[in-house]
Amino acid sequence: MKTRTPLVMANWKQHGSEAALTDWLTSVSAIDLPEICRVLCVPLPYLAKLRQQRAELQSQVQAGAQLVSAFRGGAYTGEVSAAMLSEFQVAYSLIGHSERRQWFDETASARRGQLSALWQAGITPVLCVGETALEHQQGQTCEVLMRQLAEVLDGQATAGPLVLAYEPVFAIGSGKPLSAQSAQQMHQQLRLMLKRWYSAADCQRIRILYGGSVNNQNAGEYLRQDDIDGVLVGSGSLQAGAFNALCHAV
Ligand code: PEP
Question: What single Pfam family name could you report for this chain, choosing any that match (predicted)?
Fold first, then answer.
């Protein structure tokens, strides 16, 4: 039996508006689901509104960020530090989402810095890993995942709480999710890989989310797998009604 609290993360990417946030949060917060943890990762300008609305609605939905600076502060135009995020009660932040790696050339060294910056600010990092379609076809998935973990965790793994998100790149935004059974196999592998850095007990505690074309039709099936502890959801999270249905399915 799983003892890890299911985590459902909505990633709005570069979508939304203040008005959409108000409507979404009002609708989602009206549903009492204490048995799961729900997180909304909004674009940075909406964090202030999210903090205000969470307080007004006494919402169970936690605040998440989609990116964070590796630097603590200083002359880094455009950057937002982990300490700044924590002022807005951000509890979780994504690191290494494939869209950041693909479009913004985020490096492994940046991801390492982001991880320790988040820990220092008391924010839980959600480290995204996943292989491309070509790597998948060439049977390199395990090798790629191990490398992506090692380049961030080596030397600093046990310093703070961690969530992993397994997101095969070809499943993101494609409408072609990995089957729940295949995802389970990879999650099992990832939990084994974590033994390089963590005790057996810690490996059992770390939540591993699946992401890639999850919606309210397929979410339940992922959560029924032994090693899948939640989902990271992009387009399926934008409409409050669909997101609520997805959370009920979990
Ligand atoms: C994501 O944003 O991480 C994601 C998985 O997107 P989508 O659900 O749209 O595939």
Answer: TIM
